[in-house]
Amino acid sequence: MQNRQSAMDQFLASVERRALRMAEIAVGNRADALDIVQDAMLSLARSYGGRDPAQWPPLFHRILENRIQDCRRRRQRDSRYFLDLPHTDEDTADPLDVLARDPAPGPDRRAQGSQALIRLEAAIRTLPDRQREAFSLRIWQDIDVAGTARAMGISEGSVKTHLFRALAALRGALGEHWP
What we know:
Blueprint: H1 2-27, H2 30-48, H3 56-81, H4 95-101, H5 107-126, H6 129-140, H7 145-152, H8 156-174
Helix pairs in contact: 1-2, 1-3, 2-3, 3-7, 5-8, 6-8, 7-8
C-alpha cells in the first residue's frame, strides 16, 4: 500500500507542471486550470490508484481532458445567462519555465521568448479540441502514439492524423515564428 502511494505521488509530481500548462492554455485562466488539474489528480488517485501504474498516464490525461471540456461547457452555459467578462490572471508567468529556457536571458531575448510563447499559446487555443489534445499529449507530454490513442479514446491512426493537422495549422498560424 505504501509503495503504491509513493508511486502515485511520484507520478502526480511528474505530470503536475505540464498538466497545469495544458489546462491553462485550454481554458485561458490559471485559477480555473489549477482547479481542473487538482480535480483530475484527485479523481485519478481515488478511482484508479489501485490499477497498474502503467495505466495511469492515459487515464490521467483522459480525466484532465474531460475536466477541461466540463469547464468549457460550464462557461458556455453560464455565458448565456450572465455577463461574460474576460478572465484576468496576473500570475501567469511560471518562473520555472523562464529559468528552464535560459538561466540569464537579456531583456531583448526575454521579450522575444515571451512574445513567441504568447503567439504559440494563442495558436494552440484556435486548434479544434482533438488536434489540441493530440498536440499536447504527443509533443508536450511526450506520450507515445499508443498511449495518446488510449488517453483520447481513438485509434493510433487518428492520433497521427490529428497531430499532423495540428502541426500544419500551427505552422500556418505562426509562419516565420515556427521553429
